[in-house]
Amino acid sequence: MTALRLFSGFFLATFLSIGSQAQVMGTFTPFLNMGVKLGGGFQTLSGGPVKAAPVALGGIYVQKKIGRVGVRAELLGTYSTFTTKNPASFYSLYAPGMDTLNKGKFNVIAVSVPLLVEYQLRERLDIVAGAQFGYNINVSDANGAYTSVYGNTDFLKASDFGIVAGVEHKLSKKFHVGARILKGINDVNGSKYYLKPKSWTTTGIQVSASYKIF
What we know:
Strand order of the largest sheet: 1-2-3-4-5-6-7-8
Number of helices: 2
Number of strands: 8
CATH class: Mainly Beta
Helix content: 10-25%
Order of helices and strands: HEEEEEHEEE
Radius of gyration: 20 Å
Largest sheet: 8 strands, antiparallel, barrel
């Protein structure tokens, strides 16, 4: 959480700094561009026992561009629901009265911080690539099936690291649309769902729309 607080403080300080400049100077050219972002996509766990889950996302970004090259940092909140392919008790030792029908279902609220490099291929088209740090704020058992068998909601580890790559298309000076792929590089399996624990890594695709405020 320390890293997350530092990034949050960075975004807040940037926003306040830009807002102060706007009040004092009126029309100005900011050192950093700033905007908001909304989107969605799908995410799954490679090597894991879940179906691909829809993801909703939203947040802010700051950006600095010099010529054709730029850097961008984002702070995004995401919401997704993972459902296991088999009943929650599928990999456990059977016990009388255990639920053998309901699948595990988890609502996941997370934050992610992509740190990206941009390169302008054409006048309205950029490619972006970089690293992403994610943190699961809350993982809840939506139907109680997993908790009834294992006694906890420790299905996923809290932290998730990965790499992202994609494209951004400028519809106008302020409106952008984009698409990305995400590939996790660390094991996020925090469960006892398998009798022999396996490594799960995050894989996902995202589409989004951005609006530049400054």
